[in-house]
Write a structure and sequence with these properties.
The chain is 37% helix and 17% strand. The protein has 315 residues and is an alpha/beta fold. The protein folds into 2 domains: 218 residues, Aldolase class I (TIM Barrel), CATH 3.20.20.70; 83 residues, no CATH class. The strands form 3 sheets. The chain has an 8-stranded parallel β-sheet. A 3-stranded antiparallel β-sheet has the order 9-13-12, covered by helices on one side. A two-stranded antiparallel ribbon has the order 1-2. Helix 3 links the parallel strand 5 and strand 6. Bound molecules: flavin mononucleotide (FMN). The site of flavin mononucleotide has 29 residues, from strand 5, strand 11 and helix 8.
């Protein structure tokens, strides 16, 4: 099987394998640029950054690649507008909005000729996105890491989304190998988005502790948590998630970073702690299939394995 190039705005993604945006600071310029250098689409996660930090990260990414670079911002953060506008100002190749979207962002994208791609988990939201001006949609199933918009498997929702819209559909959630990509292509996807697989890459800048925690994860370690933004999230079991299930964590200080927050705990602080290597008190987001990945590879080798695997699969 072969991946066909995907045109997004003025850019052509030679191999439409998107690296999913991962906050806080899990997918930064080095990872995104490495993916872009392989012909895929790299994504810098803007959530948890200031607009200036995001601008600097985009510039760093541009200095590392001529390839296709995007930005992901969670709709739930208060500085969503400022972050998206900072990315558009830097002439980013695409913007992905996670866990929600607004009518305005499609207008900003249209004015600046920057493709806007919401993450959706139903045919209904895909249809609304297309009407509002989305250039593509990422359809995410329950296997994904981070915040979840559904409890249904990707391969069940994908055909529904495919028949609901004409814009490109990018499939996300639980894809870690060529088999997963082939299945998504058969169900009509124009591209795929992988996140968990790329955490276990040499170019991902998270701490060694974070990567080791991923490497040791077993199937039963992948759990669902209740995020203060009001959505479920997929993460790895650790002392922090244990406390969370007993509702024994509170909030020490709050800078009002989220539009809506139930203040059970500070999610951005918890994600920051994980990124820095505190696997006891940090929140370690992960996709469902983490336990099937057992080695850290260079992004180039991840791409090589995916593409050679696809070559061996019949149409
Ligand atoms: C550590 C981690 C952090 C994530 N952070 C975000 C995020 O900030 N915004 C977002 O839209 N999705 C986020 N996601 C979801 C991914 O972008 C992606 O769509 C999903 O994880 C794909 O499933 P996979 O991890 O099984 O490949 C995150 C996923 C992980 C594993």
């Amino acid at each position: 099987m072969k991946l066909s190039p995907l045109t997004l705005g003025e850019k052509i993604i030679k191999l439409p394998i998107f690296q999913g945006g991962m906050a806080v600071r899990v997918s930064l310029a080095p990872l995104a640029a490495a993916v872009a250098n392989c012909g895929g689409a790299g994504t810098i996660a803007g959530t948890g950054m200031s607009p200036q930090e995001l601008t600097d990260e985009i510039r760093k990414g541009r200095s590392l690649t001529q390839g296709v670079l995007g930005v992901n911002v969670l709709f739930a953060v208060n500085n969503f507008t400022e972050l998206v506008k900072a990315a558009i100002h830097e002439k980013i190749d695409f913007v992905v909005s996670g866990a929600g979207f607004s009518r305005d962002m499609f207008i900003w994208g249209k004015e600046a000729n920057v493709p806007i791609i919401p993450i959706v988990s139903s045919a209904k939201l895909a249809r609304i996105s297309e009407k509002l001006g989305a250039s593509a949609v990422v359809v995410e199933g329950k296997e994904a890491g981070g915040h979840l918009g559904t409890d249904r498997p990707l391969m069940e929702i994908l055909p529904e989304v495919r028949s609901a819209v004409k814009i490109p559909v990018i499939a996300a959630g639980g894809i870690i190998d060529a088999q997963g990509i082939a299945e998504a292509l058969r169900l009509g996807a124009d591209g795929v988005q992988l996140a968990t697989r790329f955490v276990l890459s040499e170019e991902c800048t998270v701490s060694e502790n974070f990567k080791n925690y991923y490497l040791q994860a077993k199937k039963e370690d992948v759990v669902l948590i209740k995020s203060p933004v009001g959505l479920p999230g997929r993460a790895l079991k650790n002392p922090f998630t244990e406390l969370m299930s007993k509702e024994e964590i509170g909030i020490e200080s709050c800078d009002g970073c989220l539009k809506v927050c139930n203040q059970d705990f500070c999610i951005l602080d918890a994600l920051r702690r994980a990124e820095k290597g505190d696997t006891e008190r940090g929140l370690i987001f992960s996709g469902e299939n983490i336990y099937k990945i057992n080695e850290i590879l260079s992004v180039r080798d991840i791409f090589k394995n995916l593409i050679s695997g696809l070559d061996k699969i019949k149409e």
